[in-house]
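The instructor's notes for this session suggest beginning with a concrete chain rather than abstract definitions. Hand out the sequence below and ask the class to guess, before any prediction is shown, which regions might be ordered.
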Amino acid sequence: MSEHQNELSRDRPIDPTRTALLVIDVQNWVMDEANRHPRPEFYAAARARVIPNLRRLLDAARGAGLEVVFTVMENYTRDGRDRSLDYKLCNFFIAKGSWDARVIDEVAPGDDEMVIPKTSSSLFNSTNFEYLMRNIGIDTIITTGFLTDQCVDHTIRDGADRGFYMVCVRDACMTDTWQRHEAALSAFKGYCRMMTTDEMCAALAAVPGRDESGS
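After discussion, reveal the predicted structure:
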């Protein structure tokens, strides 16, 4: 073996004690068609494919004992003064504690699952997510949610740079169009392990001592 080669691999068994399922920005504002410009491909895919897949992944992750974490776009202050410069330039504003900021009912967080507000594209840049994951002993992040070419992309790249094993469940995320979705997956695939919902659920089902009740 060359001195520059090693035995590290992204394709490694899931260790539930060191793995978190991350659900990015699956919130009312994103799914409320009245709030956004027309994007029929997104809403059709989100409702027909992504949300059902997220429900399956949540059941599997909870049953395997993974940490489950949600993030939402939400101001920390009433007037939004804490927002990033980019959010201010775009006039992007989701009020603190509002309906828009809540995770949608279909994938509602459990009583003891973290919901982390953020004011940047990458979860790592405006929250204490990394600190929390280090405290819990997490080194692997299974990434899902919206939008593939924005917050999902930024979070995966940043997580990889910070030394996390990043995983993207490719059919549990989406953006405005299929073309953009596929282009994003192709662009950031070098930073993560790509899996489907079926593959991830099978991997989680194989975790020793799994709780079949999903509780």
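Then share the key points. The chain has eight helices and six strands. The beta strands are 19-24, 67-73, 114-118, 140-146, 165-174, 193-195.
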